[in-house]
């Protein structure tokens, strides 16, 4: 079997891009079946080519999966629904991971590993989000160090969407939204949570017992279509069978399976098979003109133009503007890419070159990229879908190629790369010029690029003027380009100085868009390519008593990308810290004439608790909170680190989940614990 690997915002097997069609399998009452062949034949016949397990697969299962042509994603089994940072839970996870990789880690059917699944939000608050995130990242690092060829991920859910490991290969989210528009809207959001990574819906399903078999079939049909149309890397249907074993007991009060407890197919099985077979809907795309400007860009522009020649489903006019090259770039383009329209200028600057390309273009949509970019084969197709919704301009991500050297890895993780700024999940405030498309009408209406910007800053000025003219900029999260960063640390720092000089020009032209200290005033979120995760001064909106279903962070800029694992040696981390300190100061010096760096702020931690308690309960956390509310306790605010307060005493309540439905309640108390009568049956935690 071909190994699965990450390919930008998607997955790939060999040379073939894959939309991962996965179904959850087990655990079942009584354990694994004695023979997997019949189940796996039916699963394959339904159009699936991958299984997601909630345990580590035995070799017999992997052998049968390989024979059926199914990839398998293992689930690490450990006590993740407890306070695992206080007890030996993380040691248990490390040992389970080591044992699994030792026994079957080399099996060709094993495609990836989920190191955990939905750490409960109340326990995340109890242990601390940054500490939980660090534990998940440690497990991923441990596994990847042993088996780098596998896909490593954490199966997250919307209540802790801020808990995205920076070193995971993809963003996996369990999403149970039964309304199609809401599901589609959240998929768009997931692309921004994922950053540069693929988005995998790691669970989606509907309970046919409560909603009916026909509703289940309909929901799975539109979920498949939505995931394919909106650029998800795959969808995991939950579940194969109604038979399900959880927490040491058989679950009999819900039916999420595609087959019933007797093994008979439900309508959803045929519906999913049919949905997988449906092609993506065709979209009429406009005529594109792709404009690439270069100065002394040979041979890198050859890679750019070769990638444009490989575009799928769209034909485009290609225009190369040679801005005064002296290295034979024009001859190279003329000889190797005769189909490209070549314009030669004396040295005029980037903006003037782009304007010259636009004047020569005949397309309805003018698309700009840089000579150090290589475009994805579906780049223009996905931009075309975006323009079909009426945007005046649009752009997509620019991803650094996987690094082959430590220098490439450090520069890719350093601050200051071209970034998009999003007003919401669909509309951009700014998209970088290396991946910017605009209607011909809007381009000439605002007068094109300002030729005073010769090397940088032109795209910022252009987007601001577009918006000032009432135009709107869309975002196509899967219309990406591979953007090679600067080849050396010296070149990177020189680039940052150039950006600072361009920002000085922007300050003179758009003074109201800058603060007195010289920082740009963006209305939207600045995306760095890294996934959403808790860091620095971010505030999490847990909701009163931590009960919000979708718990978001309040941040203006995402954290930076992680250093690639293969290059994360201590000396490289030290060098990254150094240039992360230097770059904004050099940029500031060029912009406002003085060295000034970002101010690192950290939230004030809550005062240490006065005591912590634990007690076994047959009713769980919600009943404990309700009892306290009825006793006169008041809920805290949406961002408070406690749940309830009364007469100066505050309490945070969490719940450990154990087998057979047993619950162990945890209480963190600031103040007088005697005000909580239910603690009379509890024991103090050392």
Automatic annotation (TrEMBL):
Any single Pfam family the record assigns to this protein: Glycos_transf_2
SUPFAM superfamilies: (Trans)glycosidases, Nucleotide-diphospho-sugar transferases
Keywords of the record: Glycosyltransferase, Transferase
All copies of domain Glycosyltransferase 2-like, residue ranges: 289-383, 431-496
One Gene Ontology MF term: glycosyltransferase activity
Family to which the UniProt record says this protein belongs: Belongs to the glycosyltransferase 2 family.
Name of the protein in question: Glycosyltransferase
Species of provenance: Haloferula rosea
């Amino acid at each position: 079997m071909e190994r699965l690997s990450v390919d930008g915002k998607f997955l790939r097997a060999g040379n073939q891009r894959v939309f991962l069609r996965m179904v959850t399998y087990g655990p079942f009452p009584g354990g694994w079946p004695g023979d997997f062949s019949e189940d796996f034949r039916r699963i394959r016949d339904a159009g699936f080519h991958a299984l997601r397990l909630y345990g580590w697969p035995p070799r017999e299962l992997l052998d049968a999966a390989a024979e059926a042509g199914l990839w398998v994603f293992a689930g690490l089994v450990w006590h993740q629904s407890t306070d695992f940072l206080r007890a030996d839970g993380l040691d248990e996870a490390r040992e389970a991971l080591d044992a699994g990789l030792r026994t079957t880690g080399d099996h060709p059917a094993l495609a990836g590993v989920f190191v955990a699944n939905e750490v409960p939000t109340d326990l995340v608050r109890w242990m601390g989000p940054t500490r939980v995130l660090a534990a998940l990242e440690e497990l991923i690092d441990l596994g990847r160090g042993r088996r780098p060829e596998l896909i490593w991920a954490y199966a997250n859910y919307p209540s802790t969407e801020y808990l995205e490991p920076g070193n995971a290969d993809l963003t996996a989210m369990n999403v149970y939204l039964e309304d199609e528009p809401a599901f589609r809207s959240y998929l768009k959001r997931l692309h921004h949570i994922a950053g540069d990574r693929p988005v995998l819906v790691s669970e989606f399903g509907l309970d046919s017992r409560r909603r009916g078999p026909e509703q289940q079939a309909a929901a799975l049909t539109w979920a498949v279509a939505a995931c394919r149309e909106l650029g998800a890397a795959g969808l995991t249907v939950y579940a194969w069978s109604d038979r399900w074993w959880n927490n040491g007991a058989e679950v009999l009060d819900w039916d999420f399976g595609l087959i019933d407890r007797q093994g008979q197919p439900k309508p959803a099985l045929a519906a999913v098979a049919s949905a997988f077979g449906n092609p993506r809907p065709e979209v009429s795309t406009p005529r594109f003109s792709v404009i690439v400007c270069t100065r002394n860009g040979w041979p890198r522009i050859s890679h750019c133009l070769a990638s444009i020649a490989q575009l799928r489903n769209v034909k485009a006019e290609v225009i190369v503007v040679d801005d005064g090259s002296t290295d034979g770039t024009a001859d190279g383009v003329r000889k190797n890419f005769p189909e490209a329209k070549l314009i030669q200028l004396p040295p005029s600057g980037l903006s003037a070159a782009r304007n010259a390309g636009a004047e020569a273009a005949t397309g309805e949509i003018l698309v700009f990229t840089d000579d150090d970019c290589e475009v994805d084969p579906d780049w223009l197709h996905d931009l075309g879908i975006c323009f079909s919704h009426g945007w005046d301009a649009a752009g997509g991500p620019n991803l650094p190629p996987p690094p082959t050297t430590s220098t490439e890895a450090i520069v890719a993780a350093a601050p200051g790369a071209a970034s998009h700024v999003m007003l919401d999940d669909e509309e951009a405030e700014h998209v970088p010029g290396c991946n910017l498309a605009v209607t011909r009408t809007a381009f000439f209406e605002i007068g094109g690029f300002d030729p005073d910007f010769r090397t940088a800053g032109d795209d910022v000025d252009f987007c601001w003027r577009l918006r000032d003219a009432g135009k709107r900029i869309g975002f196509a999260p899967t219309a990406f380009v591979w953007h090679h960063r600067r080849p050396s640390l010296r070149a990177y720092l020189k680039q940052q100085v150039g950006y600072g000089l361009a920002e000085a020009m922007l300050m003179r032209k758009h003074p109201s868009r800058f603060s007195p200290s010289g920082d740009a005033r963006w209305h939207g979120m600045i995306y760095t390519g890294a996934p959403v995760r808790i860091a620095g001064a971010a505030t999490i909106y847990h909701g009163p008593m931590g009960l919000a279903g979708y718990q978001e962070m309040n941040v203006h800029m995402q954290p930076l990308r992680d250093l690639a694992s293969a290059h994360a040696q201590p000396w490289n981390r030290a060098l990254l810290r150094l240039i992360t300190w230097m770059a904004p100061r050099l940029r500031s010096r060029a912009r406002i004439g003085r060295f000034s760096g970002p101010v690192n702020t950290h939230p004030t931690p809550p005062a240490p608790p006065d005591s912590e308690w634990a007690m076994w309960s047959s009713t769980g956390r919600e009943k404990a909170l309700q009892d306290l509310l009825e006793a006169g306790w008041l809920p805290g605010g949406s961002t408070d680190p406690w749940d309830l307060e009364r007469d100066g005493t505050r309490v945070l309540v969490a719940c450990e989940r154990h087998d057979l439905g047993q619950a162990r309640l945890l209480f963190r108390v600031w103040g007088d614990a005697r005000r909580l009568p239910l603690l009379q049956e509890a024991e103090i935690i050392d």
